[in-house]
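Q: Convert this sequence to structure tokens.
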Amino acid sequence: LNTKTSPATNQAAGQEEKGKAGNVKKAEEEEEIDIDLTAPETEKAALAIQGKFRRFQKRKKDPSS
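A:
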């Protein structure tokens, strides 16, 4: 195995890491969304999402049905 990498590869990796750190800062600066978890609309949406996910998992497990 060749464990040595070219300087260009190392430089590119360093730039990616800097970019990721910048994205984390942007995410922290974004407005925090407050969702009312007791609202009936939220509960209805959660049940719909869960149902679709369960159907997806069932099809994934048994694709013939």
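The chain has two helices and no strands.
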